[in-house]
C-alpha cells in the first residue's frame, strides 16, 4: 500500500545509526533532510551521542531549518541539551523553545546554568513565558514542576455535544496529543470530576457533563514528589492525573508518558546512589565531572579501610606468629560484603516499590537475619572444611578451621542484618534509603567483619 | 458536593491500613464491606502483606462475596496470588478468573505450579479459555505473552460515524477501559493504520477511517521481549502498541499501564541481578526460598575468596616478616570493589536505558579507565601519606607507603576497567549484563587486587 510505513520496532538499529552518522560527517544534507522527515524525533535524538562536536553543530542547524529542533530537544540527554544551548544564538534557542510545550521548556531550563536560564527567560514571550515562569516557581521534582499546564477542563453544565464541539476546535498546541480525559470544574476552577473521551463518545449529545462525570477521582497536590505522582498513576492505572493547588483548583495534569520517564529516571538514580556515585549524570562524557561525583562516596569506604588498618595493626604480633590468618581476610570480608549488598538491595528495592514499609521492620529483619544465619552456616562449613584440608594450614589442626568458620558465619549473619537495618533506619528518619546503602553498608560490614575475625582468632589461637 | 470524593493521593497511609487490618482480625465484616466498596482494588491489594494467614482467608472470602476478587487478584503480589489459589476451591478460583481480562488470567496462570495451572485451565470456559490458551503459547515475557487480545479494530471503509456508533455499544469487557486508539485493518486482519479517539471526535461523520488514519505507525512482533516493547512505548510516547504476528495480522495490543508494570519489574530484576540474588521474588516471605536464590551467587565470591587464600598463602614468609602488609589488604580490596561497582553499575544502567551500546565500547572504556586513574592517584596519595605518617609503620620508611600507594592506584585503575569490560562483553555475547555484574566483577577485582598488591610488596620490600 502506497505511503504505508508499518514500523516494527527494532531493539537497536546500529547499522542505520552508523549510516546516518556517516552522512552527517560527510555533510550529505539533501539525503539527511529526507531521512529526518521520516524519522521520529526520539530516534533522531539517539544519533547525538555518536557524533563528534562539529557534526553535532551541523545537525542542530539542519534540525532548526527543518523545524524539528523543538521536538528533538525534548528527547535529548542533559549533556547534548547543554551543548545545543551553549553553542546556539540565544535568539535562535528561544525561537526553538517557543515551539515546545511549557512543561518541556521548564524541564530544560531548570537543568541549565542559572545565568543562561535568566538570559533565555528574558527573551521568552507570550503564553509560554507566563506558563514557564509559573512552573519554575515549584520545587524541582514535584508534581507542580513536571505537570503540563495545558489540560482540557469544562464547566459542569456543558453538554456532551458542546464538549465534543469544543474538542473539535482544539489544536495539538492547546492540549497534549494524548489527551484522554475531560476534567470538569466549577466557576472557581475547582476540580469536580472527570470523564474520558470514550464516555463522551458513548453518551447522548444532550447530557450535561455533570451527570456523566465520575466524582470519585485521584488527584495530586502541586508540592507532592514526582515519585508519589508516579506511584499513584501506576497504582490506579491512570493515563493522566490532575494536579490541584492548596485550595483545590485544577492547575495542571501529569500524563503517563511523562510518568514513564520519571520512573526510569528515579530507577537510574536509585541504582547509582546504591553504587555510591551520588547524583552523577551518566550521559556526561566529562572525565573530570565523573571523577568528582564519585570521589566523595569512595571516602566512606576509604575511612573504613583506614579503620581496618588500625584494627589489624592491633593484632600485629599474632599475625607475625600465624601469617596464615591474613590469607582469610579477603574471603571473610568479601562474603560479608556480598551478602550485605544482597540484603540492602532487596530492602531498598522493596521500599521503593512499596512492598515493605516501616511497619514491616521486624518481619524483614527476622527474614534477613535467618537467611544470613543459614547462608553463614553453609559457607562456614565450606570454609572450615577447606581450611582443614588445605595442606598449608595442617599445622593449626582444628583451631584455624574453627576460627575461620565461626568468623564467616557470624560475619554473614551480621552483614545481612546490617544490610537490612541501615536502609530501614534511613527510611524511618526520612532519608532516601538508596543513598544509605552501597558504600555505607559495605564499609560498616568490612570493619565489623575484620574485628570479629581477629576476636575469634585471639580467643582460640593464642 | 454530595457524593464527591476527590482523593488526594497520599504516599503511604499507614494508619488507614492498620485500622483495616484490625477490622479484619476482629472479623468486623459489615464495616469492612463498606470500606471495600469505597476502596480501589490496588489499595485493597496492599492490605495483604500485613495480614496473618487466617485473616487473609477471611478477606479472600469477603472479596469473592463482594465480586471484587478478580480486580484485586490482578494487583496482588506473586506470594499472595499463590496463597489464594492454593487455599480456594478450584471452581471458585475459576469463577473469579472468568471476571478478569484474558491477559491478566494468563499472567497469573504462568506464575503458578504446572499441575495447578493444568487443573484450572481445564475448568476455564468460553472466550476466556480460548484467549488464555492462545496467550500461553507465547514464551514468557514476550509481547505475545503480555498483550491483551481485546483491541478495537475496524475495516478501512468504515466511516467515522459508524465507528463512533460501534464504540457506543462496547462494554468494558470487550476492550480495556483505557482504549484510546482505533486500529484499521484489511479483510485479512492485517494492520493498515491507526487513529485516536480524539481524531474520531474531531472529524466529519462521513469520513472513512482510511483517509483519517495514520499509516505511519509503530508495531511489535509477538516474539519480541517485553523490554523491547517497553522501550518502544516509552520512546515514542504511545498509549498502546499493536502486536502483529509473522504475517502482519493484528493479534493484540499492549497498553501503557501494563508497560509501567513491565518497567518496574525489569528494573527490580536488574537491581537484584546486580546484587547477585538471581531471580529472587522479593515479595516471598519464605526464608528457605530466599536462601536458595542467594546461595549460588555467593559461590562466585566464595571461589574468588579461596583463590585469594591461595595467593596470600604464597606470600606467607613475607607476611611473617612484615605483618603490617596484612593491615592494608582490606582498604586495597575495598576501594577496588567499590570503584568497580560504580563503573559496572554506570555501564549496566547506561546499556539498559539505551545510552550506551557496543559501538561505544572504546569511548566508555577510556572514560572509566581515566576516571579510575584519577581516583586511583587521589587515593594512592592519601593512603601513601597515611602509611608514611602512621607511627606503627615508621620502620619501613618510604617503602611500605610506596607499595600501598602503588597498589591502590593500580588496583583502582584496573577495577574501573574490569567493571566496564565485563558488562560490555556480556552485552556483546547477548547475555544480560546485569547478571554479569555484582559478584563476578567484585570477585575478579578482589583476586587481581590481592595479586598486584603482593607483587609490588615483593618488588620493593624484599
Number of DSSP-assigned strands of chain A: 7
**CATH superfamily grouping of the largest domain in chain A:** SLC41 divalent cation transporters, integral membrane domain
Largest sheet of chain A: 3 strands, mixed
Strand order of the largest sheet of chain A: 2-3-4
List the quaternary state of the chains.
Answer: homodimer
Q: Which CATH top level class of the largest domain in chain A fits? A: Mainly Alpha
What is the overall shape of chain A? elongated
Backbone CA Rg of chain A: 30 Å
Class derived from helix and strand content of chain A: mainly alpha
Q: Domain count of chain A, please report it.
A: 3
Low-confidence stretches of chain A: none
Describe this structure in words.
- In chain A, the strands form two sheets. A three-stranded mixed β-sheet of chain A has the order 2-3-4.
- Chain A folds into three domains: 14-141, MgtE N-terminal fold, CATH 1.25.60; 153-268, CBS-domain; 287-461, Orthogonal Bundle (Tetracycline Repressor, domain 2), CATH 1.10.357.
- The mean pLDDT of chain A is 87.
- Chain A has helices spanning 14-25, 29-38, 41-45, 53-65, 69-75, 78-87, 90-97, 102-109, 114-123, 126-137, 143-146, 160-169, 197-202, 209-212, 226-235, 256-274, 287-314, 316-321, 324-327, 329-352, 361-389, 399-428, 433-436, 439-461, and strands at residues 5-8, 153-155, 181-185, 191-196, 216-221, 240-244, 250-255.
- Helix content of chain A is 64%, strand content 8%.
- With 462 residues, chain A is mainly α.
- The relative contact order of chain A is 0.06.
- In chain A, helix 15 (226-235) packs across helix 16 and helix 17 runs parallel beside helix 24.
- Chain A starts with a strand and ends with a helix.
- Chains A and B meet through strand 1, helix 1, helix 12, strand 4 and helix 13 of A and strand 1, helix 1, helix 12, strand 4 and helix 13 of B.
- Strand 1 (5-8) of chain A pairs parallel with strand 5 of chain B, so a sheet runs across the interface.
Amino acid at each position: 500500500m502506497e505511503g504505508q510505513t508499518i514500523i516494527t520496532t527494532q531493539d537497536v538499529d546500529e547499522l542505520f545509526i552508523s549510516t546516518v552518522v556517516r552522512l552527517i560527517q560527510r555533510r550529505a544534507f539533501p539525503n539527511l533532510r529526507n531521512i529526518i522527515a521520516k524519522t521520529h524525533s526520539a530516534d533522531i535524538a539517539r544519533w547525538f551521542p555518536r557524533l563528534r562536536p562539529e557534526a553535532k553543530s551541523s545537525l542542530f542547524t539542519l534540525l532548526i531549518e527543518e523545524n524539528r529542533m523543538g521536538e528533538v530537544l525534548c528527547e535529548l540527554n542533559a549533556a547534548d541539551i547543554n551543548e545545543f544551548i551553549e553553542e546556539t544564538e540565544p535568539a535562535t534557542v528561544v525561537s526553538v523553545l517557543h515551539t515546545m510545550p511549557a512543561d518541556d521548556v521548564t524541564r530544560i531550563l531548570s537543568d541549565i546554568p542559572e545565568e543562561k536560564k535568566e538570559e533565555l527567560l528574558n527573551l521568552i514571550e507570550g503564553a509560554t513565558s507566563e506558563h514557564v515562569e509559573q512552573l519554575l516557581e515549584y520545587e524541582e521534582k514535584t508534581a507542580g514542576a513536571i505537570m503540563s499546564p495545558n489540560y482540557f477542563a469544562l464547566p459542569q453544565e456543558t453538554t456532551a455535544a458542546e464538549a465534543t464541539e469544543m474538542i473539535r476546535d482544539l489544536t495539538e498546541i492547546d492540549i497534549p496529543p494524548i489527551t484522554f480525559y475531560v476534567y470538569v470544574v466549577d466557576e472557581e476552577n475547582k476540580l469536580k470530576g472527570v470523564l474520558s473521551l470514550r464516555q463522551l463518545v458513548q453518551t447522548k449529545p444532550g447530557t450535561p457533563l455533570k451527570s456523566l462525570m465520575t466524582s470519585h477521582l485521584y488527584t495530586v497536590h502541586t508540592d507532592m514528589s514526582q515519585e508519589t505522582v508516579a506511584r499513584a498513576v501506576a497504582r490506579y492505572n491512570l493515563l493522566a492525573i490532575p494536579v490541584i493547588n492548596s485550595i483545590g483548583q485544577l492547575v495542571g495534569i501529569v500524563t503517563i508518558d511523562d510518568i514513564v520517564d520519571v520512573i526510569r529516571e528515579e530507577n537510574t538514580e536509585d541504582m547509582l546512589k546504591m553504587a555510591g556515585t551520588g547524583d552523577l549524570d551518566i550521559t556526561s562524557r566529562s572525565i573530570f565531572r565523573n571523577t568528582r561525583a564519585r570521589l566523595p562516596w569512595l571516602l566512606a569506604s576509604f575511612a573504613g579501610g583506614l579503620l581496618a588498618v588500625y584494627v589489624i595493626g592491633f593484632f600485629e604480633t599474632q599475625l607475625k606468629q600465624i601469617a596464615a590468618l591474613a590469607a582469610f581476610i579477603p574471603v571473610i570480608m568479601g562474603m560479608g560484603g556480598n551478602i550485605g549488598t544482597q540484603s540492602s538491595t532487596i530492602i531498598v528495592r522493596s521500599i521503593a516499590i512499596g512492598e515493605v514499609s516501616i511497619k514491616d521492620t521486624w518481619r524483614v529483619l527476622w527474614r534477613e537475619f535467618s537467611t544470613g544465619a543459614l547462608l553463614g552456616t553453609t559457607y562456614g562449613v565450606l570454609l572450615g572444611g577447606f581450611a582443614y584440608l588445605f595442606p598449608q594450614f595442617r599445622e593449626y589442626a582444628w583451631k584455624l578451621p574453627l576460627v575461620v568458620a565461626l568468623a564467616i558465619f557470624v560475619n554473614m549473619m551480621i552483614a545481612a542484618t546490617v544490610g537490612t537495618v541501615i536502609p530501614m533506619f534511613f527510611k524511618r528518619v526520612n532519608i532516601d534509603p538508596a543513598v544509605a546503602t552501597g558504600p555505607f553498608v559495605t564499609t560498616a560490614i568490612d570493619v565489623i567483619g575484620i574485628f570479629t575475625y581477629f576476636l575469634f582468632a585471639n580467643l582460640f589461637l593464642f
